[in-house]
Automatic annotation (TrEMBL):
It holds the Pfam family Peripla_BP_3. This is LacI family DNA-binding transcriptional regulator. Keywords: DNA-binding, Transcription, Transcription regulation. The lineage of its organism: Bacteria, Bacillati, Actinomycetota, Actinomycetes, Streptosporangiales. The keyword rRNA-binding does not apply. Residues 16-71 form the HTH lacI-type domain. It comes from Nocardiopsis sediminis. It comes from the Bacteria. GO terms for molecular function: DNA binding. InterPro entries: HTH_LacI, LacI/GalR-like_sensor, Lambda_DNA-bd_dom_sf, Peripla_BP_I. Signal peptide: none annotated. The keyword Transcription applies.
Amino acid sequence: MPPEEATTAPGPAKPPTIHDVARLAGVSTSTVSRVLDPRVPPSRSAAAERVRRAADELGYTPHSVASSLRRRGTSTIGVLVPRLTDTVMAILYEELARACQARGYFAVVATTDDHPDTQRSAARSLLQRRVDGLVLSTARLDDPYLAELRRTNTPHALALRTDGHSPASVGDDELGGYLATRHLIDLGHRDIACVAGPAYTSSSTRRRDGFLRALAEAGITPRPAWVRESAFSMEAGEEAARALLSGAERPTAIFAINDNTAVGVLSTAMRAGLDVPRELSIVGYNDIPLAGRLPLPLTTMRVPFRDIATAAVGLVLDPAAPDATVVRPPTLIPRASTAPPG
């Protein structure tokens, strides 16, 4: 009989090296080093483009491996947000900066316009500057770049959004969507619409899930046309409200899963001559400073940004389980934009 073959369990994947990039791009390691050096003006040569494509394909980032980051620590944390013109992201960044400062670190921010390619480029730039880890509020469901960060053992955590795999600090969005909708149901509303946000974020999908759970619990059948995907912006709220309020039948209440979209809904309703809240109740989400200072203060769900930010920084600096998730509950803040129907 042939000798029994020894079987060995595969070990963890090794992070790509500069030699791997050079081999794939067909250049020398010194060329790779020069092209990926942030201190050198970017080259647009064919060789440089091959190097950048090879680095992307392999998931190679200089100094991205955890041991390298710790050995060459700079006491900085890189923060990625979609944009700082979004009040929610500005608040989150300020809280992350405060949490970093409390741990003796400095937060450096980069914006991505919520675009995956820009996220990858911004993260690489931060890692090349030898930050000690990343906090990303840009996560998409099944985000391939986050899989890269996990594979290369790069210290990172997600904030407000999660892909379900990387360490994350989030609000309990499903509970928040449920409580917001339950508030409207308890006021007597049954014709309730939802401005549901983008489908690629966990925060949107889970708030929508909470909305649907509350309707189901109350025996209310949701109307598909009244659950409208949107962006996180006032303009998106205005567009969704025009569609929802222009039909022969219209809702008596709208749950917008973001305060910016809720402000857009409110603006459109008032321009249409509707009496808010007697003819239309509106609930937002996040409790940005503007929400309570509008001429008609907005009912909303308050998100504990400080707690979420503190936990996110902790997940970077004190790594727990690879898929650790910290969840913080939101709080309903009733204001003048909601009332019983009619």
